[in-house]
Amino acid sequence: MAGPGGRTWRDLLAGRARKRKSAFRSGAELQEAALRLLDRHQNLNDLLLEVEDSVKPGGQGGVEHQEVSSESFIVSVLQEQASRLGVPTAILAAKNAVTNIERICQASASPFQVPLLNLDQRKRLSCLLQTVKDLLANNVFCRSLFCQEMWKMKDPPVLEAVWHLHRGDIVGLGELLESNPAAPAVVEWLCNSLCGLCEQVEESSRDVELAGRILSDFAILFLQNGFQQTSELGRKSEFKNVPYICHAVLQRMLTWVLDAVGKEKQEEVSTLQAMRFWLNVFNVSVYKSAVHPDSLQQFFRHTLTEVLTYNPLLRVSDAIHMQKEWSFTRTCSLLTTLYRKMFMAFSAKELICQLQQVLETHEVNWQHVLSCVSTLVVCQAEAEQPFKDLLRHLLIKAFENYDMENMITAFLIARQAALEGPAVFMPYSEWFKASFGSSGGHHGSSKKALVFLFEFLSELVPFEAAPYLKVHIMYPPFVPTKHRSILLEYITLAKTRLADLKVAIEDMGLYEDLSSTDESVQPQGQALRDVEKALQIFENTRKIPTSVIEASIFRRPYYTSWFLPALLRPRVLPKTPDARMAFIDSLKSADKIPSNLYSTYMQACCAMKEKMLQDESKVETSHSKEPVEQLKAELAELRTLIVDQAKYKDVPAQIAVISDRLTNILGHSSHENEAATLNSPIQVDISAPRLEPSHQSVVDLLLTSFCQNLIAASYFNPPDRQGPCLSLFVKMMCGHRNLLPALLGRLCQLIYHQGPSLNDAHILGLAAFVIHLSECRALIPEVKASCGISEPVSEKVLSISEYWNCLLVCRTEESFAFCMRFCTAAASYLMCKFPSYSCEDLCALLPPSLVKKLQYIVPRLSLGARGILCEEAKTDLIWSSLSCPSLNYKRASLCLWKQARFQELLKEKALQLSFREWLLLELEVYPEKDILSASERQDFHYWAIYQWYLPAPSASGGCDGDLEKACGIIINTILDSSQRLDLGSCGQSKMSVSPDILCKLQEMVLELGCRRKLLSGCLDAQRHFLFEILQERLKDRKHSSALGEQLWRQQELLLHRRILVGLPASALIMTCRKGKKTMLDCEDFFRFVNLELKNVCSRGYALSYDITAHFFRGLLNASLDCEESAEGVNDVLTACQTRCPIVLFSAALWWPRLQPVLCSQWKRLFGAPLAEELERLRERQSSATSFLSSGMVFPLSGPPWISAAFLHCTIQQQSPHGRERNALKRLGTDTEQLLVSLLFFSLMDLISAKIAPKEGVDFQTSLEWSLAILQCLEERGMSWPLLFHSAEKDPSKYCILRSAASNGHIRLLPVAFYSLTPCFHQELLTREQTFLYVALDLYIQLLRLFVERKDLLWQSPDTTEHVSEAQSLFFPLLTVNPSLYPFPCHWQHPSCSHLPVQGRGSLCRCLCRQAACSHFRAERSCRCCCLAVVLLVQDLRVDVVTDQWPSSAMSLLCVLQGDPLEVISTARQFLFSVIPRCPAPSFGNIQPLLATCEELDPELGATLLHFSRPAAAMELDEELVLF
Fold it and tell me: Is residue 1244 within 8 Å of residue 1285, measured between CB atoms?
């Protein structure tokens, strides 16, 4: 009790003691006197508020004074008063305490009672409670009466006061609650107080901590009593009403929250904030060890059940119609917060089991159930598979019992989960296909199951949204053929529903994404997306997409009403035609755009050019600004969560919000492309990736946010302690399929084009982003990477890991530095992010190309990485070295390289850099821009080849110490590198060979040659590994087209020749021992030349100079190993005459250049006269020159075709025009083989002039020379047709000439033959009985050249392409669907039967009208059609209705009446003229050819049959008229 001036009772007493000596002899006397005084002036209520220490040290000089104990004093006063009143002291104390509490609680200035006390009330209550504690200690306080008296107060107790009683162990809340028999009133008071507490906290932030402690303590008590376990029931049996009260309070408060869920927008903000404060009760961390784990689980299970079953008024039909509004981002935040807090107590599997149990046993609130599904799949990454298992279980039960409830539950859950995007759950279309799209589905077991499914789907139809109906129509359930009517009935019903919704199936887009359930996309919006996709395809193929062509025919309403207006939106046309203009022009040329519509479009574009659309552009920019700003704000909020570990649990929800904002932005973009289905590759132009400005800004925003989040999070925690936040962010981005093209294109710009200019933070962020993209690789389709050129072969379909390999190139000093920095950052981040992962797990996440680049770059740039590592750096140095301000990437990469864990990772087979891959990377380097100097590069190559890969085992990509194997790998890699299209070089193949690598190959080949000399007697030395490697590459080649195969083979052989010329010349020839004699073996070289190398000879009968000279130099060098060098050379050249005559023919062609080289080399090596065979070659050249210049007799020595080769080449090189005819006359009489050989060489030149005009051979000159030789042969009556006999059919003395010619020239011999018809005389028919056979055989070959397209080099590349395309287009079309061409045939002719079998009877019908042409691809297709007609039905006397052809096609038809067709016509007319004059014996030889002739040219075959009769041949005796 306070005295004057605010001094306490003790102070007064102590002061008096100090002033004078006490008049009382003892303390008892003093106490008795005090009591008498209090009798007259006592106030027990104020007395109980006095709280002081029982002993207080004081006085002076260290003297302690006897103090009067206030506690004992108060007890004495209470006892005295109680004795007077005749009541127990404990009861009096309890009543007085209640009175004090009531006074304190009523002292508030607020007119209404509030749950929290003010500071003065709190101080006074604290004094009272301290006194009560002392009374309890002295056993003079009755708790039970105190509890009863508390409920008798005028106003209910204040919640904070009750908490202080509970917290101070004076009266527990349970005891207080139990003392009130009116349990419902207690529940009412407690709930009101708790609600008031939550609301008061929001008004005053100072009391948040106190309110949180109050709420936590009460929540613990509620759970301990409201959800008791069996083991606790006996211990708490004294409480009968408390469990009910606690349970009821929790239930009532949950209802308070759930009532607000449905009307969140109507509630005041303060009320919602109060409810969010109450939701802290559901924080698992509140209970820690205070509550039994089973009680906690029971509480959360009960709460989840209550939420899911709360107010189940919505019907299933409502759920079907409204479930899109219940996605995660659209669900009330109170509900999602409650779910997320409850989810912390369970695993995803446990939650889904609880959900399943509730669905099976209760009536549910579908809004709460489906919003729970959405929250679960968004916030629990591992929920996808348990949900799939649940759906499978529901379908099984549904079909077992034919239960509609399980069916609808499965469908609703599948759709709801799919609403959250493919990043968290498979699209609905994929689930529907997987569940019902095959015979193995649940509905496939019986007809009853099938009927059940379609009955269910039919019942859904009246409530279905259009996107789901489209899925069911486009991906219908599998139905056996016999039950097809069930499916058709459903489709009819679904289409009717679509019609009611004003969504026609015909208005579906060409590339509509059926995995989306966005109903807001109208046909015009979908048409815009279709246009963008069609333009994308057109840009890459330069062809009108097939889907557009089909839509123009089969879906014309959509095409004309939606697609064309979307395509022909007026705009300012660019000066240089872009892809859209080219696409429109192609459609116009193909008559796919009506003329009036096209004219209107052009006029509108002209009008728009004048206005320039400046104002409209500003409007569009401001329109899209708001969603982007919202996205920025949400990304900023995400950053605050990522840097705080305590807030990681909120990251999934925030990412879901970002995803929703992203959807809003992309949805408003008029250039949005949602066209790609789950399996369609993403188009990326590596050379110049094109991005929509709106998409690029969004992608930049997302990438910037990722990098900033990574850097910010790394400032506080290393990657392994940053949680799954960044992974979820990237996964969310991958879920937006329409964003992926822009994302991958932007990464191409940043990494491939701008990589060296990026700073360290950018590189680190992008490297980590690539790692997380690899985590989500299942969500990313393949990438169709192109290099911007029109050839389709320039495109490559790559996985996402291969795509990084294309972007990370190592060619220049700058690109080497960037690649090392990027790959080091990526690998380091991965290892720091997942330190506990095994090597196998890391291997699955890390793109192999990144590790392989490191294996290539680090040893190349760091000497310390070459060789065996002896030390291991500390693991934590990796991330710290990347994070330090002064970043040295060479040091960082070496630090990473030396990590034992990284070295273990390199042992994984998928990550090992093989010798071949190392070579491919090294061959890409530009030596002049290399980061290494020439000497440094040479040292690196020596280490890599001889010290690393050569001794390494093949299992790790090495060569097992096998030098021959190493050579094979080098050769194959050089060829592969040269053949492959380099995306980074815009599709140009690389024909040059790295001189450094070639130098190492030369060293190895020389070393192998030395070894073979030592092992010359072994079987291994008898095989030439070099030609084995080259010929093995040419075996079993398969290409998509004959033209592609031929072009590949020619380029391959040119590369073979280049490599052979680059190797030591002696490597072409082997030495072997026969007895005691060393012999030269050229068989492998001869075989390679005869089979392959001769086919890339443009002259047909001679190799190029480089390989010819190389062989002869090698021959002379190799002869050094022989005991008799001249004899060895003679033997080889003699063998050439029969085994490889093209070598000698080549020597004849190049002898003027070859002679000085060989003579000089022979003199250097031997200093003796030339070998005999070399001398003979020189003599033949000299004789030919003398014969032409001085008129000497031409000597015949050796095989006549060799002399003919020298004579022919000398004539071509030296003889003036016209002198060769005189030379022919001066040849002797016994020169038949010489003249026929000359004719052969001249015909080869004639063909070369056609297919290789750049070789300098003139066609007219060659033709005149050939005719002159033929005239000479005819004048002398010599036989020459045997020259044209194939070796297979009739081996002749001239087969050696044919064997030396290239296959291409031999195939074109029919052209050369029929070019000679002016010199064919009547005597030839009677003198040469085989002439008709030869002429007919060559005519058949000539037809096959065109019909079967055997020769693809005769026509120009453009013509060849059109011919191939025409035949590949119209023959299959007519075979499969002749109804596409309902027009009447204007012409037919029996001669059409000579066409290929697949085209008979169809050609006329498909090509004579413009309407047929319209089905092909634009104007180019018309050219294809015309070429097909010209090439295949030329000279068939067909009356073509030319007025039906487009003008462009008619002009081309006239232009192509060229030489190839004239040859066929000439040959045919010649045969028709010759056949009647041939003697009867001539027809005896042609029987094997008749069947083929009748098939290809029935008219000619009939003529042959007619005149082959002896009588008919005798009747006709009219004069032969030749042309």
Answer: no
| In contact, 112 and 64? CB cutoff 8 Å | no
Q: Return the residue matching tokens 């490697």.
A: 1029
Of 239 and 437, the structure prediction assigns the larger pLDDT to 437
Q: Name the one residue in this structure whose structure tokens are 């799954």.
A: 724
Q: Are 1352 and 1043 in contact (CB under 8 A)?
A: yes
Enter the tokens of residue 962: 């096998």
The arithmetic mean of pLDDT across residues 905-921, rounded, is 92
pTM of the predicted model, to two decimals?
0.70
Cβ atoms of 672 and 741 within 8 Å: the answer is no
pLDDT tens-place string over residues 701-749: 999 999 999 988 888 888 888 888 899 899 889 888 888 989 999 999 9
Q: Are strands 1070-1074 and 796-798 parallel, antiparallel or unpaired?
A: unpaired
Confidence of residue 1487 (pLDDT cuts 50, 70, 90): confident
DSSP secondary structure letter of residue 478: P
3-state DSSP of 1442-1503: HHHCCHHHHHHHHHCCCHHHHHHHHHHHHHHHHHHHCCHHHHCCCHHHHHHHHHHCHHHHHH
Q: Considering Cα of 278, then 279, then 283, then 287, what sign does the dihedral take?
A: positive
Q: Does the pLDDT of residue 377 top 70, yes or no?
A: yes
Which of 390-394, 815-819, 1229-1233, 1457-1461 is least confident?
A: 1457-1461
pLDDT over 50 (residue 823): yes
Mean of pLDDT values over 101-117:
76
Residue among 462, 454, 460 at smallest CA distance from 487? 454
* Cα 873 to Cα 614: distance, rounded to the nearest angstrom: 61
C-alpha distance from residue 233 to each of 225, 459, 1181 (Å)? 9, 51, 121
CA distances from 1499 to 884, 1330, 1428 (A): 87, 22, 21
The residue written with tokens 């084995």 in the block is 1028
pLDDT score recorded for residue 1223: 79
Stated length of the chain:
1523
State the Cα torsion 595-596-602-604 to the nearest 10°: -160
Q: How far apart are CA 113 and CA 90, in angstroms?
A: 29
Q: What is the dihedral of CA 1220, 1225, 1229, 1232, to 10 degrees?
A: 40
Tell me the pLDDT tens digit for each residue of 589-626. 888 898 888 888 888 888 877 665 444 444 344 444 57
Return the pLDDT at 1505.
87
Taking alpha carbons only, the member of 1479, 1476, 1484 closest to residue 1518 is 1476
What is the 3 state secondary structure string of 1265-1307?
HHHHHHHHHHHCCCCCHHHHCCCCCCCCCCHHHHHHCCHHHHH
Please give the full DSSP string across 956-969, using - where no structure is assigned.
GTS-TT-HHHHHHH
The answer to whether the beta carbons of residues 1430 and 1453 sit under 8 Å apart is yes
Distance CA 1206, CA 1178 (A): 10
Q: How far, CA to CA in Å, does 1193 sit from each of 785, 1152, 1184, 1488?
A: 67, 21, 9, 45
Cα 1232 from Cα 1237, distance rounded (Å) = 8
Which two structure tokens, joined as six digits, stand for 648?
């990681």
In the structure encoding, which two tokens stand for residue 857, read together? 């770059």
β partners of residue 1079: 1072
CA–CA dist 1200, 1151 (Å, integer): 18
User: Among candidates 1017, 1029, 906, which has minimal Cα distance to 974?
Assistant: 1029
Euclidean distance between CA atoms 414 and 375, whole angstroms: 14
pLDDT higher than threshold 60 for residue 284? yes
H or E segment and range at residue 682:
strand 682-685
> What span, in angstroms and rounded, lies between the C-alpha atoms of 1218 and 1211?
10
DSSP H or E segment with residue 539? helix 523-541
How far apart are alpha carbons 1098 and 1244 in whole angstroms?
A: 10
How far apart CA 1358 and CA 1400 sit, in angstroms, is: 26
- Note the pLDDT tens digit of each residue in 299-337: 999 999 999 999 888 888 888 888 888 988 888 888 999
